[in-house]
Structures are given as C-alpha cells and as structure tokens.
Amino acid sequence: MAEAVRHDKTSHQLRLLSDALESGRLGPVKRLVNTLSPAEIGNLLESLPPGKRVIVWGLVDPDDDGEVLVHVGDEVRESLLAAMDPDEIVAAVEDLDIDDLADLVEDLPEAVIEQVLKSMDRDNRERLEQVLSYPEDTAGRLMNPDVVTVRADTTVDVVLRYLRLRGELPEHTDYLYVVSRRHQYLGRISLAQLLTHEAGTPINQLLDDEQPAFDVDESANEVARQFSDRDWLSAPVVDDNHVLLGRITIDDVVDIIRDRAEHQALGAAGLDEDEDLFSPVPRAARRRAIWLGINLATAFLASWVIGRFEGALERIVALAVLMPIVASMGGVAGTQTLTLMVRGLAMGQVGSGNLRALLAKELSVGLLNGVAWAIVVGVVAAIWFQDIPLGAVIAGAMAINLAVAAFAGVMVPLTLRRMNIDPALAGGVVLTTVTDVIGFLSFLGLATLVLLR
Amino acid sequence: MAEAVRHDKTSHQLRLLSDALESGRLGPVKRLVNTLSPAEIGNLLESLPPGKRVIVWGLVDPDDDGEVLVHVGDEVRESLLAAMDPDEIVAAVEDLDIDDLADLVEDLPEAVIEQVLKSMDRDNRERLEQVLSYPEDTAGRLMNPDVVTVRADTTVDVVLRYLRLRGELPEHTDYLYVVSRRHQYLGRISLAQLLTHEAGTPINQLLDDEQPAFDVDESANEVARQFSDRDWLSAPVVDDNHVLLGRITIDDVVDIIRDRAEHQALGAAGLDEDEDLFSPVPRAARRRAIWLGINLATAFLASWVIGRFEGALERIVALAVLMPIVASMGGVAGTQTLTLMVRGLAMGQVGSGNLRALLAKELSVGLLNGVAWAIVVGVVAAIWFQDIPLGAVIAGAMAINLAVAAFAGVMVPLTLRRMNIDPALAGGVVLTTVTDVIGFLSFLGLATLVLLR
Predict the structure, then answer these.
(1) Worst-scoring range by mean pLDDT, A171-175, A238-242, A351-355, B182-186?
(2) Where, by residue number, does the polypeptide cross the bilayer (chains A, B) (predicted)?
(3) CATH number of the domain that A342 lies in?
(4) Quick check: A297 contacting B, CB < 8 Å?
(5) How far apart are CA A211 and CA A188, in angstroms?
C-alpha cells in the first residue's frame, strides 16, 4: 500500500544519522545534516529524542538555524531555543523574512526580541511591528509586507526599467500590484504579461482586477480555504480603506491546510497538531491524563448503568459475556457517521440546508446495518448459549443501538458546534458515551423485560 | 473556538441555496451558483443530497462544468457524470489543462474518451496520451507537459523577444526551463530575473541549477512531501535520460497534501477520502458493513475471553459492572500513542533509529498514567462496592492494561507497516482488540486469583 512506501527517504536518513550518532563520530553526522534543506532538518530534529536532538542541532549550519526554527512545531521549537544562547538566537533569526520572524517571535525570550528589533533597520522594524500588531491566525499575520507596487498610469517599458533599477524581487513574486496614488490596491499584473507585451503597452490595459484582496482581519482558515479552493499562488492583503499592506503566498498557507486536515485525527485522541513526538514524559503524561480522566468519567457512567441491572446479571451470566458487543458495535457505527460529519462541518458542507437529508441517509444506513448485524449476532449468541430468546434480545438491542448511533453521529457534532465546542476534539467522547450507555441500557433492559419475566 | 467559525461562508451559501431550491424558483439559484468559483461550486455540489445535486448541476454554466468536475471527489464526480450526456461531457472536458484532463479521464465512459481524443489537435492528443502512459500517483501523472524552454547559449534580450513573439505563457509560470540541444533539463531562470537584468546578460549566467528535477516515476507522495518541505511553487519532471517532460505546480500538490493529512482521520473509521457525504444508501451501508463485520469479530473475541471467567462473574457481579472501565481506558490510552505513531510514520519521523527511545518514552507515559488512574479507579471501586480487595484488583488491572496499551500503541502500527498494511486504516481495530482482550483478561484473571481463592 502507498502508506508503506511513504517517506522512506526520510526514515532512511534517520537511520543513517542514528547509526552515525551511536558511533560517536560527529563529522559524518554534520555532513549528512547539512545536505538537507531547513525543512528536512526540522523534520529530522522532530524525530530525534531530546539528547540526540540537542547534539544534531549543534551541528546545523548556523546560517540555516533560523529557517529550521520556522519549520518545526511549537513544542520542538521551544526545546531547540532552550539549547541556544541569546546571541545565537539573534544571529539565527535576524535575516528571516518578516512573516517568518513574526511567526517565531512569540516563542523568543523577551531580551532576545529587543535585541532583534535593535539589530534591524528602521524600515524592517516598522514592518515587523506592523505585522505583530495583527492577532494570530489572521491574514495580517500571514502576510509579508515586502511587495513590489506599480502605478496604473504608466507603460510596460517604464515598469521594466524600474524593475531593472530595483534589482532582485522578493521571493515567489509572480505578480506586481497596481496601486493608486494613496496606495490603494487596484489590481495586479503578472510578470508573464510584462514579458509578453510590447514596451509601449499601458499598464492600465494589462491590469487584472479580478484577484480579490483579503481583509487584514480575515481568519487564517478562510485564507487557507480560498487559496486551496481557487488554486491561488498569492493574494494581496488590504486594510479597511483598501490600502495595500502586503501579500500572502501559498507556501505559508500549505502548512495551515495540512494542520487543519490533521486536526481531526489528532483532536479525536485529545492531541494537538503541535505535539512533540518526544515531549518530556511528565508533560506528555499530564496532557494525556486530562483526556483519560474525561474518558474515565464516562466509563463510570456506563458502569453505573450496568450496575442498575445487577439482578439480571446475577441470574444470567451470559449477559455479562455479551454486553460489550452491543456497546462496541454502536461505538464503531457512530464513529463512522461522526467522522464524515466532522469533516463535512470543517469544509462547510453541512448546515441547516442539508441536515434533514443527511440525517435520513445516515439513519437508513444505520438501520440497514443494524438489522443485518442484529441477525448475525442474534444467531451466533443463540447458538453459543443454546438460548433463542437471548439471541432475540441481543438482536433487538443491536438494532436499537445502531440506529441511535447514526442519530448521535449526526447530532452530536452539530450540537457541540452550536455550543462553540470543537467537534473534532470532543465529538468522539460524547458519542461513545451515548453508544455505551444506550448499548448497555437496551441490552440489559430488554433482557430484564424478556428473559426475567 | 476556531473550528466553530470555519467556513461559515460556505454553509451560509448552502442555506441560501437550499431555501431557493425549496421555493422552486431556479432563477435565483442559478444566479447564486454562478457567482462561485468552480471549486466552490464543487464544494457546494458535494454538500447536496442527490436530488438537489442534479438540479443544481444542471444550472451550472457549461463553461465551468469541466473545472467543477476536476474539483470534486471521485464518488461525487461519478454521480455528476451520470447526469450528463456524452456530448455535454466532451464539451465540458475538452478545454481542460492536460494534467486535469488526465486526472478525469479514467472516470469517463469509453465512448467519451475516444470523442475527446478525436476533438483534440494532434499535439495535445500526444501530450495527453503521454501523461496517461504513467501510472496513477506518480510525478508523470501530476505534471503538465506545457512548459516554456530556452537554451543556455543565448541572452536576456533574445529570450524577451522570443516571449513577446510567443504571447501568453502557461498558467502559473514562474520559471523558464533551460534545456540542452537534446532537450535535457539544465536548470531554470525566473521571470523575475529576466525582468531585473540587462538585455545583454547571458542566460548561462542567470541559470539556477539548484532546483532538482523529479523523476517521472517518483511517487506523488514524495512529490508532495518535497513541495511542502522545500516551499516550492513548481518543479520540473524528467525521464531517465534527464530529458525535460513537464512541470508540476503547487496547486496540483495541495490536494494531495490535504488528502494525505485527512487520510488518518477517515481511515481510522474505515472511510475513504473520496467518500461522498451522500453516497447512495445501499453502497454506503455495504462499505461500512465490512468495517462493522471486522469489529464484530474482534468483539466476539473479547466476549469469548470474558466467557472463560463465567464462574467468577457468577459469584461476584461487581466484576461485570466494572470490567468495561479497564478495557475502555486501555483503548483510549493506546489510541493516543497510536495516533502519534501513525502521524510520525506518515511523516517519516519514526524508524529503527528512534524506535527504542520512542518506546521508552511511551511506556513511561503509560506507566505514569497507569499508576495514577489505577489509584483513582481503585479507590472509587473500593468505596462503591465497599470492597478493598476488589479496588486493589481493578487498580492492578488498570496499570497492566495502560502499560500494554502504550506498548501496543507503538508496536501495532510498526508491525502493520512491516506487513504492508496501512496503519492508518487497520491500526485502531488491532489496537483496541489488544486492549479489550488484555483489559478483560487482566481484570477477571486477577479477580479469580485474588478474590476467589
């Protein structure tokens, strides 16, 4: 399967590096590390246990330090910064792009931030301060204020001359932005157009005013959605007066798109996208303990429900043997519906407009599977315990629980969302609480009614 | 929370559209739909139940049909194609870019493919046939053969003249590729460089030979990883003889990056990234039934284990009441470790190089939490049932199961991967089977040893 061959390159490097580290010869390690791109070094550092991580971090070319810091998760970054002295940090980060620096700055010690600001020229300092003045997770934070602007009332050859005078363009420049006298964003012209049109062509005529600008307050998630839906590579950012403030490029958005998609898998286990594979044990244990504690509370709730039926359990021990089946199948079926719903909600594909249709579909699927597996489970149980009424009871409970699971799979994430609770995080816990409780209740309840009359 | 405000725009559109559809006035629906980009229309169609989906699909501007088809998941695409006649399909897809067309072609009816090929000019047909000759999920399939090449032994002004003669450049062109006489890839020059250097500058001198080319057989996953790790916007693709074949751009890779990240969450529930929110009920039921069947088998295994202890359960009913707690806590703790591991494996961050360190860390976390929660559960159980030995038994079982869960959380995904089974898909089932069996076994086994002596 595809999964199995993924990234063999990285894990191969990891093994080479690990062998070299074990042998204690740091020369080869250093050579190996410095053939990698900063992002790959970051990836590698994330995969190393703390002791080795610090050693390898010390061997990274100081020129790459800043870029590596940009490319690792928050927790790992913290551990890397802890191994540097203030001067090293300043040297590492002072040459970063403004948007990357803004991304880092919150994790830096106060003294270092001041030193970095002091070491910057006034223009860049003002730009950084401007970017930092926008809240995290907004377009303002993602943008790079370093853009090339031109005026509309000019011609291709004037722009070409200006660019030749200017020299190097900012990285990933694919468009120049056309602005008014008051620096308001009017549209853009692509470098390709400048290259393919005659010298005398007025810029006005090439102006593409279809590319909308992001408001500086727009959420990072909405920015990511539009980039990915509209296949943009870059987009301008403006303030309330439509004054051009900067530019967002796709490379800064790709990480958000990936984090957002990963959020569902990690959130369901109570984990965070920024979790370090090698978090210090006490910290990891504490964080996971919260999740275990919440689940323990729900497990006790289920046990309490079972406890209501002690009488039935005492008389028919087969009930104790079979009861986890009903609960677990409900959990599995409900999780399937929940998983589709959480993704649909995250993509904006679920709302009051299609809720009824969705509920009807999921209930039909749940009932169909409920009846089918009820028959299977009922027959197996009846044969196993030589007890046909017992088979009928578990079959009935199964059908009930799978229908409830489908209903809960749709309604739990919607309700959580309405309560402003992230369904990717809390959905699974709430759902399995419902399917456990209903599973035990329906099975033991039916058994009491039917078998203990 | 951020999740709660995500994509309110899309779900707002969805409601507007739904209201308009209910009212039966299709004029406003049509106007609303055609203000959206093709990707947004695709997103909207995915969120509609089959009946409404067909109506809205009929209202989409035919010029957008092709792009919309590119932007929806496989299953939804099938349902849209089923609503079109062959001529419509041909008209919709014939103007697509080669790489997008190649992506669609497998879903098209045989007769339509022939007609499309016939309607293309010879150059494009040959290009399409070339792209289709590469296996799915390789660089060859992702690339667009439409690239602008220049020779190294020329100067900026010659290139500029050539570009002006050529006219429009392919979409998202940021670099021109420099090739040898035999069309071998030598390096690239950016449009920005052409614009900022004097007319007489030799291309040789501007040539950037640091951008590596992908082999045409490279896996799509490796392509995605490198794009995302190295912040590339485009990269060349070459054959075995280093002859330039085409170019991959980031917009085609973003979808792979997102799908890959989503794969973990959906796979864990036995779902597929391409699943239609509104799959026909029989199809959805059948697919999920497989998953439920697998889980039922493991649930029966757990029941069989419980059945071995009928004697103990008959004598102490509290065992039946408490036993789900031990199993469920093990499942939760193990899933946390598993989730981190599956992500680490997908990112190439887990391998033989750091396995021992990882296992040590996860076992420490598991033991720490195991002991902590064992005490809590033990005390609660002892008070609840007024039975101190019972509390001691459940505490012991809990500590054992959480340690086993940590061990299984690390080893299960590694073992599955070695067996070429996708851990994102099968990991959860295998893991919870282990934690259920060990949970029941340790609790009921300890109870038999300690309480029934």
Answers:
(1) A351-355
(2) 289-306, 318-342, 363-385, 391-412, 424-452
(3) 1.10.357.20
(4) no
(5) 7
Instruction: Let me know whether A338 and A439 are in one domain.
Output: yes
For residue range B271-286, list pLDDT tens digits in order.
887 788 888 899 899 9
Give residue-wise pLDDT tens across range B110-163: 888 888 888 888 888 888 888 888 988 899 988 988 899 999 999 999 998 999
Question: How many domains would you assign to chain B?
Answer: 3
For residue B144, tell me if it sits in a domain: no
**Dihedral in degrees, nearest 10, Cα atoms B108, B112, B118, B119:** -90
With 0-12 / 13-18 / 19 or more C-beta atoms within 10 angstroms meaning exposed / middle / buried, residue A65 is buried
Q: A215 and A339, same structural domain?
A: no
Q: Please check whether residue B265 touches A, CB under 8 A.
A: yes
The confidence score (pLDDT) of residue B188 equals 94
Is A253's pLDDT higher than 80?
yes
- Provide the shortest C-alpha distance from residue A112 to chain B (in Å): 27
Q: How far apart are CA A407 and CA A426, in angstroms?
A: 17
With respect to residue A274, please indicate whether it lies within any of the assigned structural domains: no
CATH number at residue A246: 3.10.580.10
Contact criterion met (CB < 8 Å) for B254 and A314:
no
Hey, are the CB atoms on B14 and A353 less than 8 Å from each other?
A: yes
Same domain for A209 and A354: no
Asked if A300 and A395 sit in the same domain, the reply is yes
Contact check, Cβ <8 Å, A350/B277: yes
CATH number, domain containing residue A29: 1.25.60.10
CB–CB of B329 and A295 under 8 A?
A: yes
Is pLDDT of A247 > 90? yes
Give the residue from A348, A410, A71, A75 showing the smallest Cα distance to A219.
Answer: A348
Q: pLDDT for A387-401, tens place per residue?
A: 999 999 999 999 999
Domain that holds residue A106: 2-137
**How much is the pLDDT for B43?**
85
Please report which confidence band the pLDDT of residue B10 belongs to, taking 50, 70 and 90 as the band edges.
Answer: low
Q: Is residue A179 located within the same domain as residue A102?
A: no
Could you tell me how many CB contacts below 8 A there are between chain A and chain B? 461
Q: Is residue A74 part of a domain?
A: yes
Same domain, B263 and B289: no
In a domain, A441, yes or no: yes
- Amino acid A265 reads A
Smallest CA–CA distance, residue B215 to chain A, in Å, is 15
SS (H, E, C) B155-215: EHHHHHHHHHHHCCCCCCCCEEEEECCCCEEEEEEEHHHHHHCCCCCEHHHHCECCCCCEE
Interface test with B, best of A1, A3, A225, A279 (most B CBs within 10 A): A3
- Window B:341-360, CB contacts with A under 8 Å: 342-354, 357-358
Are A303 and B322 in contact by the 8 Å Cβ rule? The answer is yes
pLDDT at B6 over 90: no
Of A229, A250, A271, which residue sits at a domain end? A250
Is B243 in the same domain as B371?
Answer: no
What per-residue confidence (pLDDT) applies to B5?
36
Interface touch A321/B328, C-beta < 8 Å: no
ipTM above 0.90, yes or no: no
* Residue A63: count of CB within 10 angstroms of its CB: 12
- Ordered DSSP codes for A158-226: HHHHHHHHH-SPPTT--EEEEE-TT-BEEEEEEHHHHHHS-TT-BHHHH-B--SPPEETT-BHHHHHHH
pLDDT tops 60 at residue B8? no
Beta pairing, strands A149-151 & A175-179: parallel
CB contact set of B87 (below 8 Å; sequence gap of 6+): none
- Give CA–CA dist B237/B215, Å, rounded: 6
For the cut 50, the answer to whether the pLDDT of residue B3 exceeds it is no
User: Do A107 and A36 lie in a common domain?
Assistant: yes
Instruction: State which of A107, A137, A167 marks the end of a domain.
Output: A137
